[in-house]
Predict the structure.
Amino acid sequence: MDNHKLTRLLFKFLTNRNVISIGTKYNPTTPLENEYVEMFNYTQTMLLEIEKAEISTNSIFYNLLRDVGEENIPENHCFHELKPADNKIEEYALVSNIIMGSDRYLYIELFDSSRIINQFVDLIKSQRGEIIEISSSELVSKLPSKNDAIRVAIKLVGLGLDKGINVRAAIGMTGAAAIERSIGLNKKVGNASGVGFTKLGGEYAFVLDSNFTIAKSYHSNYQNYLFIDVVDSTKFISEHGRNRLVELMNDVKGFIETECEGNIEGYREGGDDLIAKFPSKDLAIRAALDTAWYILNNGAQIRAGIGKSRREAGENAQVADEIKIFSNLSLVIFELANGLYSYYIPSEFIRTIINLFFNKKAKLISIFIFVFVISYLLSIFGYGEFGFISVILAVVYALISWFYINCIL
């Protein structure tokens, strides 16, 4: 679905934004993944590019300093690009993170067996990590996010170097992927202490071969905030009543708290907006998408923004006011790398139009031919000014078809 160039070009023209995908080409392997993929494709959710991310070695490193914390990366390091990242955003990789979550596996290898491995276990557990497997020279653990895994791995390497022990760490989606990355790191940089990881499809490593002291922090302690606002709530209340709005917002609040690990910080019952804090950006995006799908199915739209602070989340949500197709859209806006992107959830009417482009090409062509032929014949017989009648007939046919499909079937 997401590769349909004609439809993406149409919505690029309508939104004045590049449309990366419609639906998703992510291949699900679990019931949960299948549920989300079906929802992406059924709702024909689009990924829009608001500000293009410029992906390079320098931007990867800059984002790493921002996300991991400059205070957590020692000055005496070597940053290696083992495989460059593609200068584009892959929608299926984003969907993978949203569905599967942001947790990552951390593999630790000591060049020689040592009891220091027990200190490593204590440190990992103190950072909300889970120990999967352990021996006298190897350790596999799981951390809440890739950035957490990188930060903890650097600390472990530093502890090892203080004791004269070389330590290699690698991070992956699975334990096996982390181990394989460690093997590849050894082949490319040799027997040196360091941390290997991926960013946006590229392979990178910090090589740390001398003792280091973590610099004093001046990095902000960023969180992950979600700002949600119901679009044109006054109109919704006039049509459905305030009690219905309260019911919807209470449902959203309960879902965020119980299903998405969110902490509601700013909500007053009867209001049309809220702010929530999440342990990861992926959970914030998932909560926003689920909310947008649910609210749209109940006759309303939201604008949602995700950011590292309450202010940034609110500012991102306001960007939705700049993107319209005749009226406001249901949008979830967030940063990715150094760019700004949005999920756009189309209304039922827009989905009907998309369905015409995807599945009713022959009918669409027939309507065009009908309008052309009737207009041409009328012009031959001197009644060209009545060509608009064919257009009206085509529109009436389209409306009758839409009503039959959506209201009778």
